[in-house]
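Justification of resources, computational component.

The compute hours requested in this renewal are based largely on the per-chain cost of generating structure records like the one below. Each record pairs the submitted sequence with a full structure-token output. That output is archived, and it is also reused by downstream analysis tasks.
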Amino acid sequence: MMGVCMRYASSIEEAEDWLQDGFIKVFNTLHQYSFKGSLEGWVRVVIRNQALQNIRKAKQSALITLVDNDYLLEPSTVDDEINSIPQFKAIELIQQLPKGCRAVFNLYVIESNSHKEIAQILGVTEGTSKSQLNRARKLLKEMLYDKGLYLAKK
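The structure output for this chain reads:
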């Protein structure tokens, strides 16, 4: 579950705090587990939702709507590059994204949610979700390029 928190948090310390908050939530809501599906899957959803709730609470770096053609990249290119590097390096790069971009990137690329679902989870519009994903991809592409892990032009 620490891995789930690490994908959304900016630091190990923040992830640890969120993990603790998440397990408190798990223990407080354990009676709601219906024994349908795996316990691990249910716990993962509770932990993820707690991490997202923490992001919403800290909306000081709120989701910024950026609609700019510079951010419209080929969807699979950067996602494939991120998936092809070791997990610890991918998490390190994802953690450097602004909170809104990081949340949308994780929900869309890692957890395969649609923009409609992401909009509902984060309380934003679908357009904001799309622009944040594109911004995240652009930033990741630049980071990968700077580290020599992405050979295409910036």
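The chain has two domains: 1-57, 61-154. Residues 60-76 have pLDDT under 50 and may be disordered.
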